[in-house]
Amino acid sequence: MISFIIDGNKTVDHPEKSVDVKAGELVILSKGNILTSEMTSELNDFRSLIIYFSNEVLNRFWIKYEYLLSDSLSTSSTPYLIYKQDEFISSYINSILLLLQKTSTLTAEIKQIKLEELLLYLLQSDSTKLRSLRILSEDQNSLHLKAVVERFVEQPTTVDELAFLCNMSHSTFQRKFKHLYGSSPQKWLLNKRMKLSAELLRASDATPSQIYFKVGYENHSSFSEAFRKHFGLTPSQYRKQYMTVLK
């Protein structure tokens, strides 16, 4: 959660310490046992803008922008981070408020873009400080596993090869993968690749023989057989049926 304090104060209580967040500051709170309370200003007013997001959203941000991170990882961690609201952040708050004036509900795409905009700015301003949240969100091995899997999902990579890239034994990789994704890697990869191939068949003019290598298969026949078992139709039949429904 990110809370921008506009008027008044917010108190963050953690088992180890408490801290006051004042107007003109923002606080990023991690998931955990933290209590917060609000205090009004001299004008008996408390105003804040709050952005909620899950640890999974934060993890995907680290995966997406891993290339921006230095090799050294912060070894310290804190349940919250406090930043001063500079000119950029003040403009950022105003942009959110303007969007909310236009519509009471923002689309998922706009929410993601605006959150990434802020996190990228904070990362550029002080990467070491922001990266302490990375430790809180998930251990480094799990984050690395997700980065590898999502990078190679569209390539003909085997589970053993993914385990090797993650520097894990086959059994350790299987166990960690199931803990993170709630499924075996074989089943998850199949479902992911089938979903992607179906999207490509619906949204492009590419033939099945032009698609298979884009979804992690080494040849057309193995792709067609996997697709038929998954959907009950060959790729060509699936596209024909989809086009018929559209008509």
Automatic annotation (TrEMBL):
The keyword Transcription regulation is assigned to this record: yes
Keywords: DNA-binding, Transcription, Transcription regulation
Entries under PROSITE patterns matching the protein: HTH_ARAC_FAMILY_2
Pfam family, one: ExsA_N
Record InterPro entries: ExsA-like_N, Homeodomain-like_sf, HTH-like, HTH_AraC, Tscrpt_reg_AraC-type_HTH
Any GO molecular function: sequence-specific DNA binding
Residue ranges that the Swiss-Prot or TrEMBL entry lists as coiled coil: none
Organism superkingdom: Bacteria
Domain HTH araC/xylS-type: from-to ranges: 143-241
Cited PANTHER family: ARAC-FAMILY TRANSCRIPTIONAL REGULATOR, HTH-TYPE TRANSCRIPTIONAL ACTIVATOR RHAS
Protein name: AraC-type DNA-binding protein
Annotated organism of origin: Chryseobacterium limigenitum
